[in-house]
Amino acid sequence: MFTHGGELLTRVVRDVPPGAVLRATGYNGPMVTAHEELELKYDVDEGVELPALAALLADGGVAPDAAAPLTEGDGGEHELEAVYFDTADHRLAAARTTLRRRTGGEDAGWHLKLPGAGDGDGEVRERREVRVPLGRAVRTVPAALRRLVAAQTGDAPLVPVARISTLRRVRHLVDPTGRVLLELADDRVTAQRLLPSDGPGDVAAAPVGWREVEVELVDGERALLDAVAAGARAAGLRPSASGSKLARALGTGGPGAEQPSADADGATTAELAAEPAAEPAAEPAAEPAAEPAGVSAPAAARRPLPRPGRKLTTSSRAGDVVLAHLVEQVEQVVAQDPRVRLDAPDAVHKMRVATRRLRSALRTFQPLFAEPTRPLRDELRWLAAELGAARDAEVLRDRLGDAVAELAPAGGAGDAGGDGGTAEVGADAAPAAAAAVRRQLEGAYREAHDRVLAELDSERYRQLLDDLHRFAGEPPLTARAGRPAAKVLPRRVARTHEQLAELVRRAQRTEPGHERDEVLHEARKAAKQVRYAAEAVAVVFGKEATRFARAVTEVQEVLGEHQDSVVTRERLHELATAEGVGGAAAFAYGRLYERELAHAAATEEDFAAVWAAASTKRLHRWLR
């Protein structure tokens, strides 16, 4: 065994519960499995001799343990053949998602790889991989996987886009018990891009080849990968410039890869869609790009959205700045869709936040759009509400699940039965009460999450995604959208802040109680809108907008804690009085209710301080 920083490196379990996968896919066929994949990827020249894994760990600061040494074993050589599927215009690739049918090796089957929560934050790449057995179909993607990528693909068919052959040599790092901690795959890759043709079959482009190395965490601690990364840097290994083999095969990343032309995605959003503006004079709109072969007009609604081709500044058109933000949030909704279906940690929260940011931006910057945004905002409100039910249940589960376990035995009297009598709630009753509470809370979350899954399969949701893509891709802009960002956007943010300030004044004039709680709740929502508005334009207003947004975020978070306490108390009362709740559990709910009352009082004191800090003049200068 190895140690890092004096601590024993322990096992990390990264499997996804099968029940979550089956509910997400609605798949009743062969078993669908999912797990988190953590790996490092390096570009390596031919002839380079790779260091031993143990040497990389040592150079990365992980000292060997003589009492429990790790050994490096030969995992053999494998010939892998994979066909990658995507839409004709590569929507999955644009979303950093890969879908393949692979034969050979020890994990043959259909593989869907989705970006992980922290993917792109460092050298370690995170993926969530879903697998389905091969089956008989060769060119028809299993329904379970089609369902998981429907938000990205829309109605566009999934077709073969690349064929990749890999000669893989594998090495394993093994502990004394035989457990594989790390796997190193030394790959010689030959890739061919498949092009649509007028006749049957595919047309293959000229093959390209390269060598790359992947180091994947199998059954070890994340710190092992971090140490390997440090050791690899010391050894001079180059982190891969491409996100995946497919990205390199398609020419979207990697050394020597063909890069997309500026015409494909180099124009600003306004150049693709904005109407001419009077101040300053608008640049001519770019000609709309021709649809890729095989993409129908309805299917084109989900094509990758345009991104600004140059850095945005305060002199940029206001419409460009706002539309860049809208595109980012639409992409976030789509990216979280499969993660919500798989019940990935924090996925519901992230998707809900993206819908709220979209709705807030459409409301705050309405004068920049030539058409009313209320219909789209109403649909976003519906989706946020559906996600909110699951998110609230998730927060309650996490908030109370741990808290009830921490409750010390009362040592006195509590309502132990349903007949009004009392009995001592001692040490033996506390674990049973905690378990009952956790079961109840987990059941409520499961019900709410299953309702979300049903809505994500609804026609209403599919139409909303189409509408969002159409709006962000071809927005109806006004002449005001063509004016410089500095002349338009700060005023819109200032207006949202004025509405927040009025709500705060109302709350300060209201006596504590239900009415004050309601006003503080409205102030929390207003603070969130101010924060979202400031963050939407921070890309051009820099530190001033960021500092302002941070101060308002503290206001929002304190008010959020207050509202969470209000909602939690209401839910605690419902849970305690529900049919079939035992006396020990009901008593635990009562103890938690008392805690929430004290917590709410403390948040009101905190609110006064954070509001004063957020109201300083220096934070508001940029809004003039």
Largest sheet: 8 strands, antiparallel, barrel
Count the beta strands.
Answer: 15
Radius of gyration: 28 Å
Percentage of residues in strands: 15-25%
Determine the mean pLDDT. 81
How many H/I helices? 17
What is the class of the largest domain in the CATH system? Mainly Alpha
Strand order of the largest sheet: 3-8-7-6-5-9-10-12
CATH A-level architecture of the largest domain? Alpha solenoid
Distance between the termini: 61 Å
Overall description:
By secondary structure, the chain is an alpha+beta fold. About 45% of the residues lie in helices and about 15% in strands. The strands form three sheets. The chain has an eight-stranded antiparallel beta barrel with strand order 3-8-7-6-5-9-10-12. Strands 2-1-4 form a three-stranded antiparallel beta sheet, covered by helices on one side. A hairpin with a 7-residue loop joins strand 10 and strand 11 (about 205). Helix 12 (about 375-405) packs antiparallel against helix 13. It is globular and about 75 Å long. The N and C termini lie far apart (about 60 Å).
Secondary structure layout plus pairing:
Elements: E1 2-4, E2 7-8, H1 18-25, E3 33-43, H2 53-59, E4 63-64, E5 71-86, H3 91-94, E6 98-103, E7 109-115, E8 125-132, H4 143-148, H5 150-153, E9 159-174, E10 180-195, E11 203-204, E12 208-217, H6 222-235, E13 238-239, H7 245-249, H8 262-265, H9 269-273, H10 318-341, H11 347-364, H12 374-406, E14 413-414, E15 423-424, H13 429-456, H14 459-473, H15 485-509, H16 514-576, H17 583-614
Antiparallel strand pairs: 1-2, 1-4, 3-8, 3-12, 3-13, 5-6, 5-9, 6-7, 7-8, 9-10, 10-11, 10-12, 14-15
Helix pairs in contact: 2-6, 10-11, 10-14, 11-12, 11-16, 12-13, 12-14, 13-17, 15-16, 16-17
